[in-house]
Amino acid sequence: MNMIVTEGVSRCFRTLAGEFYALKNINVEMPESKLTILRGRSGSGKTTLVNIISALDQPTDGIVLFNGKDITRMSEKERTKIRRNEIGYVFQSVALIPMMSAYENVEFALRMAKYEGDYKERVMECLHLVGLSQRAEHLPEELSGGEQQRIAIARAIAHHPKVIFADEPTAALDTASGLSVVKIFKDLVEKEGVTVIMTTHDVGLMQLGDKVYELEGGELVSESDH
Amino acid sequence: MIRFVFRKMLNKKWMVLSLLIGNILLISIAAANPIYTETVLQRTLESTLSGYVEQNNRYPMTYTVRATSLMNDSEDLLETEAKLEASTKDFGLPMKDFIKYYTLYRSDTETSLKRKDKSTSYFLGSLSGMEDHIRLIEGTGMTREPDEDGVIDVIVSEACLKESRLLVGETLTYTKYELPDGSPLRVRVSGVFTYSDKEDTYWILSPSSYTYTMFMQEDTFAKLFLTPDNRSCSAIWYSMFDYSDLKVKGVQQILDAADYYNRTMRDKSGMKTGNYFYDLLSNFLKTEKKVRTTFLVLQVPIFALLAAFIFMVARQLLGMEQGEIAVLKSRGASRRQTIGIYILQSAILEIISLAAGIVLAVALTRVLFSANAFLEFVRRRNVEILLNKNAVIYALIAASVSALAMIVPVFGYSRMTIVNQKQKKHRNTDVPFWQRYFIDLVILGASVYGLYTFNNQKAYLSQRVLAGESLDPLLFLSSSLFMLGCGLFILRILPLLTRLIFNMFKKQWSPAVYTSFVRILRTRKQQGAITVFLVMTIALGIFNASAARTINKNDENNLRYTIGADVVLQENWKFIEEGGGASGPDGMSSGSGKITWIEPSFLRYEDLEGAESVTKVYIDKKGTVNVPSGKVGNVTMMGIETKKFGETATFDNSLMKIHWYQYLNAISQRSNAVLLSSNFKEYGFRVGDLITFKSSNGASAFGTVYGFVNYWPSFAPVSYEKDADGLMKERENYLVVGNLNYMQASWGVLPYQVWLKNKNSSEYIYKFAEENDVTFKSFSDMSQVLVKRKNDAVLQGTNGIFTVGFIVALVLCTVGFLIYWILSVRSRELQFGIFRAMGMSMGDIIHMLINEHLFISGGSILAGVVTGILTARLFIPLIMIAYSSSDYSIPLRIINDPGDFIRLGVIIGLMILVCLMILGVIIRGMKIAQALKLGED
Fold first, then answer.
1. Which of B674, B774, B915, B800 is nearest to B299 (CA)?
2. Of B858, B830, B839, which Cα lies nearest the Cα of B915?
3. Does A120 lie at the interface with B, CB-CB under 8 angstroms?
4. Residue B674 has pLDDT above 50, yes or no
5. Which of A5, B380, B497, B748 lies 20 to 30 Å from B293 when distance is taken between CA atoms?
6. Contact B217, B166 (CB under 8 A)
7. How far apart are CA B586 and CA B589, in angstroms?
8. What CA dihedral angle connects A39, A40, A45 and A50, to 10 degrees?
9. Residues in chain A closer than 8 A to B502 (CB atoms)
């Protein structure tokens, strides 16, 4: 079963220099409960693709099926609902809310998704999963880059989303921290059955993916299963 | 470097624009102060002098020297004349007229006609320039030369002709004098003159007062009598200076010159000096001092606010550039270069602001002078705006201060490297420094201490003001400090309240509201400046509005009370003196014999179309009341017709606990019932007591006390008089109100006042006076008095300052508010992106911002309103002292016009709306994907 399917997705940006295609006719199939990696150099269009398949941006052409539903035909309201309930995001830049503690940041995701269970239990569970239950009361600026990214992951998974999108989650981290982040994703896929889709420019992380797509100049150049 | 600075400024164009607005406002207000102070003073000076002419029909700038001693011979006189003629240089004014009155001492004459004369001794004189100011009623004028018989033609005034029963053509021979050639001095009455124009200020003494003077041609007089060694001439010189170009600066010179001439003239024996202007001008100088201080001090809060604004925006701008500075520094830019950049930036800003500010200052002064009352404007005829040197100096000072405010913080920042900066960022959640060090309480304490001290000295302060001094500027400072302290204190309390609300419903809040609360509570330091600023501006706006309204309204109420009715007048009554049988205008009686007054028909007033009601009011301010310990003098006796008085007089009911009609009803029950002023209670009087009171001419009457009143139409409970030391002293006044019928039965019909209530305008009364040729002994038209009061330059200036202060407060409020919110949204674009990505809808985000507005802006606005009202209540009574006048009768009431709150509310509401709209546009234009990208660098 595929979580994400795209058919002929293109994204065109109008710039002063004329039209510029960031994505050209992309067709991908990303399976459920697997780790899919989108690889490419910066400017290859991988962030644009992630934004489109995660309902943050709209394609100029083509359709995106999210869990079988065409999100390109949905209203902004419905897309907001999908983002809130079914998706968790981890961004390249650490995107924690600066005035909230680690605990509150995670809890916030639960608030957003109107989580039914016990907040405290779930927050601590997630923090434990990323190995940071000791730092719950710290503010983001009091944590290191890797720690912040792990909090971001805890936040992304807190409300049990179907899919986690991670755009270059390791870019700002050293190799060891980067590896531990990907490890967490791997664990999530295996233990909780979450679908994870991440982008990276790092060739060394490629073999960790269940499925790998490579992008270059807005076009899909290779596709491989492991 | 200039290009770098320009590029930097363009980058932050909104901040720079705000800085520019702040600077231009500051400079223009600073520059406007001397401009309109000067203009107000000039207008006051002009109206002082022209008011004098109107009231006295005399030319105020007249300096008079009399030489009436036989010690002075003609040469001395001519020498003095020359000296006085040259005095224009010392007075600094050109001569409008230099009138010389030379005369031979009065001497007996022999007439050519045989008849019984009442008087036969006359002066023979000459008045320079006389021919241009007279009209001949009879006969011909003066001739230049004696005729072939050596007879000189003279003219006399009408009064002289009547008094001496002279005949035109009659020849008189002076027995004491002769002509230089030894022949007898003979004059022929060739004509009778009067003034050509009644209003002509040439006639310092009217022609009718020259009852014993024969006038001859001036040159002939000089040739014949102003000869060496002649000691039979006396002289009066009137130097009339042309003051049409008199400037405020020139006033002191005039006083100095007058002092000088008084001294030098009196050195000579037999010289006396006099003038009309000395008191007038020295009082003006006192007013000048008062006006200068008051106007400057009234603006202190506005200056403070503007300075705070500039400082705030400059800091904000610097904060935004902190990173850049740190980077420059890390890349090896010296501290001097960094500071240089900012000095250059402020220089550019100040130069633009100076140019624009001075232009705006002139415009602002025009606005100020069209202020009729607070926030009320009228078109006024061309007021001459006096741009002066001080304006430029003030503008330069303002510019330098504001440049300093922009540059000083750079010194701190320029020391920081990128490392310090990152470290410092961590302390963002700290409480503001003023809270940590309890600065709010310190400021509040200091200002309350000031308030307390000033309240204790109130009586003394008002005495000083009445004596012409200005109010202590510290008073205004403490009111500003109070506003600041109070505002800060409320801001200390408000978050506790917010926290309480937040915690009470913590679980129920939607994620958006929850986030906004977290933000409100955890970013207090960032909000600090804007909240304090909002509190200050709103408080100042309310305070200004309240102060202006209070000053205007109390003034107006006092005038209404003091006058008593729409129109109050008293006709000139004719009288018959027993024995002499002479009749004339009142006040001119010779004092002997019994006087019977002839009452003018009152029916004429009752028939007036334009009057709604009219009544007779008898007022005698020199009555006496017998008290157990003796007598009380100078009691105001007032005889009224109770019903009509109630219908006609103006009275503010709230001045007394019981409606004043009740008092009228009480005394209407019995003919000799009286009301006494409350201070009579001190003499042991109670209701029901019988009292004896006397009118000013000694006739007594008895009355039964029916009540005591604190206030009564036109009655001043206390008045102020200058005592021997020149200090203003309070005097208690006493009042007896009785029935007019009873007083007239006891004392006869004495001249009374007529009080009228208008149907619409008071025009009818002027028409009446003109048609019936009635002249009034006293006349006040309330509407005219009120209009005149509104045109008072000092009051106008005050209104103008308050109005401008209010408007400036609003502008700053709006700009400050917009800056804060736009910045706060811009700096959070990434956060909004995250929120959107996490599933917050646009509506949620706007909801979040509205909630922030509610607690940050709403809290500040609330604090501002409370602070403003509180400051007004506590400090306006003190500030009113600056406007005390000796005729203030009724208690002060603080006026808050709901209209001002509505205005303020509407403007703030609009401001928030515009702000939300701008924010909405910003947020709507924000693409989530783009917002997120921002974070990637």
1. B800
2. B858
3. no
4. yes
5. B380
6. no
7. 7
8. 20
9. none
Radius of gyration of chain B (CA): 38
Contact B97, B154 (CB under 8 A): no
Written as six digits, the tokens of A41 are: 């150099």
pLDDT in tens, chain A (226 residues): 888 999 999 998 887 778 888 899 999 999 999 999 999 888 888 888 998 998 888 899 999 999 989 999 898 888 888 888 899 988 876 678 888 899 999 998 888 888 888 889 999 989 988 888 898 889 888 888 888 888 998 998 888 899 999 988 887 778 888 888 888 888 889 988 899 999 988 888 878 889 999 999 889 888 888 7
Task: State the distance between the two ends of chain B, measured CA to CA, in whole angstroms.
Answer: 27
**Nearest C-alpha in A relative to B839:** A84
Per-position b or e across B317-340, b if 16+ CB within 10 A of its CB = bbeebbeebbebbeeeeeeeebbe
> Distance (Å, rounded) from C-alpha B708 to C-alpha B694?
19
Antiparallel, parallel or unpaired: β A69-70 and A61-66: antiparallel
Helix/strand/coil percentages in chain A, nearest 5: 40, 30, 30
What is the C-alpha separation between B449 and B214, in angstroms, rounded? 73
- Chain A CB contacts of B929 under 8 Å are 48, 51, 56-57
Handedness of CA B275, B211, B214, B69 (dihedral sign): negative
Q: B721 forms bridges with which residues in the sheet? A: B729
The CATH class given to the A2-225 domain equals alpha beta
Alpha carbon dihedral B117, B120, B126, B131, in 10-degree steps, equals: 10
Cβ-based neighbour number of residue B512 at 10 Å: 22
Helix axis angle for B524-563 and B782-790, nearest 10°, is 150
Cα B215 from Cα B220, distance rounded (Å): 11
Size of interface A-B (CB pairs under 8 A): 74
Asked if the Cβ–Cβ distance from A56 to B426 is below 8 Å, we say: no
Q: Does B846 touch chain A if contact means CB atoms closer than 8 Å?
A: no
CB-side exposure of B591: number of CA atoms within 13 Å? Answer: 0
Residue B929 near chain A (CB below 8 Å): yes
Question: Quick check: B790 and B556 in contact, CB under 8 A?
Answer: no
ipTM greater than cut 0.90: no
CA–CA separation, B415 and B337 (whole Å): 12
Contact A89 B841 (CB under 8 A): no
Q: What residue has token string 């022609």?
A: B207
Q: Where are the extended beta strands (E) located within B743-820?
A: 753-758, 776-781
The C-alpha torsion from B701 through B705 and B706 to B712, rounded to 10°, is 80
- Cα–Cα distance measured from residue B616 to residue B571, given in angstroms and rounded to the nearest whole number: 12
Chain A interface includes B515 (CB < 8 A) = yes
For residue B561 the two structure tokens come to 């009370």
Q: Tokens 């130069």 appear where? A: B351
| Contact at CB, A91 and B831, closer than 8 angstroms | no
> pLDDT for B734-791, tens place per residue?
999 999 999 999 888 889 999 999 998 888 998 898 888 888 888 889 888 888 777 7
Q: How many CB atoms lie within 10 A of CB B484?
A: 26
Asked if the Cβ–Cβ distance from B426 to A141 is below 8 Å, we say yes
- Confidence label for B568 from pLDDT (cuts 50, 70 and 90): very high
Dist CA B827 CA B322 (whole Å):
14
Is-above-0.80 flag for pTM? Answer: no
Query: Is B137 touching A (CB cutoff 8 A)?
Result: no
Contact in structure between B22 and B313 (CB atoms under 8 Å): yes
Q: Are B171 and B154 in contact (CB under 8 A)?
A: no
State how far Cα B240 lies from the chain centre. 29
Give the relative orientation of helices B300-330 and B389-414 as an angle to the nearest 10 degrees: 40
Report the DSSP pairing between strands B673-677 and B630-640. Answer: unpaired
Min Cα separation A90/chain B (Å): 10
Q: Is B440 helix (H, G, I), strand (E, B) or coil?
A: helix
